[in-house]
Amino acid sequence: MTKLYQALGLSKRYGVKDALLDVNFTIQAGRLVGLLGPNGSGKTTLLKISAGLLRPTAGDVLILGETPGIATKSVTAYLPDRMVLPVEFRVCDAVALYSDFFADFDKAKANAMLADLKLEPLQRIGAMSKGTQEKMQLCLTMSRQAKLYLLDEPLGGVDPAAREYIMNTILRNYSEDAAVVISTHLIDDIEKVLDEVLVLKEGRLLLQSGVDELREERGQSLDEFFRDTFRC
User: Do residues 151 and 181 touch, judged by C-beta distance below 8 A?
Assistant: First the structure.
């Protein structure tokens, strides 16, 4: 099976604080993976390094055997945890930008998903709610034919009624030779679709496990495991 996405001794330090410390994992193609941990555990830092937006202090990330750069950006679709497009853009402007910028972008698929979510082509980003902005960015991200999708809190500001559609959108729009990594706190909403989990705690990898194996070994749902592990 393909070693699509790996971390090898990955560390990232900000001043005297370790955001990530000696993180090691391998994710194979065809997997939908939950990236879990409380605030400050290193999830966003890991995704930004993997997307080529940050450089590690030590260790490596490998995507199809390559360190993050021009080659990996052509096969990696990254959804940040905040809006990155200009607020004066309209929906049609965002679609045009993605179409010009990414060779693997499916414009027809994007327009169909945006229409399903009642997003009008002339609607301006600055006039949208946070949840609507997130839905738009997710549609654009999942309209790429990428090998690795890195989604940072895709459900964070989305109303419960739209979450099922968004999860179905994620499931429908990646192939068996791709992998999806979803950072989220809404574990109960995504547990049923996950194949495995990476759990970070204070920058260290606490656990990598198949979700079914975790349930069998611990007799708990993933949500229960998370609440017990990180109980205040």
Answer: yes
Tell me the C-alpha distance between 95 and 198, whole Å.
Answer: 32
| Domain 3-229 class in CATH | alpha beta
| Angstrom distance (rounded) from CA 139 to CA 125 | 14
Domain boundaries in the chain? 3-229
What whole-number distance in Å separates Cα of residue 105 and Cα of residue 204? 34
Backbone phi, then psi, for 83, in 5-degree steps?
-65, 130
Cβ(5)–Cβ(62) below 8 Å: yes
> 148-152 and 76-79: which strand pairing?
parallel
pLDDT digits (tens, 9 = 90+) for 68-88: 999 899 999 999 988 889 999
pLDDT for position 189: 80
Provide the 8-state DSSP code for 57. S
* pTM for this prediction: 0.93
